[in-house]
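Ligand: 2-acetamido-2-deoxy-beta-D-glucopyranose. Inputs:
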Amino acid sequence: MLRLLTLLVLLLISAVTASPFSPPSPIPLIIWHGLGDKYDSDGIKGVGELANKANPGTFVYNIRLSEDSETDARATFFGNLTEQIQQVCDDLSSHPILSTAPSVNALGFSQGGQFLRGYIQRCNKPPVKNLITFGSQHNGIAKYQSCAPGDWICKAWVALLRGNTWSSYAQSHLVPAQYYRSIDEETGEPSEEYLENSNFLADINNERKVKNKEYAEKLSSLDKFVMYMFEDDTTVIPKESAWFAQTNIASGEVIKLRDRVIYKEDWIGLKKLDEKGGLEFKTTPGGHMQFEDKILLEVFETYFSSKAAGWGGAKEWMQDIIEL
Ligand SMILES: *[C@@H]1O[C@H](CO)[C@@H](O)[C@H](O)[C@H]1NC(C)=O
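Predicted complex:
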């Protein structure tokens, strides 16, 4: 009942503020921020404002693990990703507005990109229409980031990660360890310890013997999956992970997604998506997470416009509510 009331109030507000000739409303946008950031940071708020500049009336929800912003920032470093993704699934599927939207668009920054993929593959309620990721680690990381000289907290953190990556402690408590991926440098095959212990990436990329068919079905149901790689990214090692490529950091050899078995045998639906024209590989200048508003505006206009979404907006919402 409370939910219904909230919705009616929201609809009333949008009915009052909408002009009679307004174009169809854009579908909502969910944003998952990166490591060390928080859902209510100025940067993330600014992204939501840009989304509204490009597509006025966009309802934006910044994904969070806690309403308290410090706790939310902490959860980008510490936690069990299985539980974190489940919590986000529960939050979105019970959200008064998002749960009634026929679909949403999704934008992931850095690690938030692969976590959104986790949301899509495991839950997808509400379903994502277009997924855009910037500098994400879809094929994991092969090295932990280097720290600025004198940054002892960072150094202690990286030392903890390095020494314990495959321990059950790290795999259930330290976030980057759960998307660390190591390969046998001779054969290029994923390492045994990775396949055995990875709490997130080996599962979400369906690399184990037993495949989860739902992962491929859900991911290939996207309209578009657009992956941006930062041209001069030195934070993500290897940067080609943003495009699902595998880099052998010993030899420097890069195997592109379309030449990899995850694609050829279509473990997670990327081939199917590609064949229907839904997979895009893009680059953007600069280092990790360095970009101009211009790029984001272009992305929002190209992929998130209400024309691209083809959704009747409030009218359909109203219909859903009447049927409740
Ligand atoms: C992470 O959480 C899930 C769900 O609670 C649990 O089943 C799993 O064992 C945890 N992972 C690790 C590595 O402890």
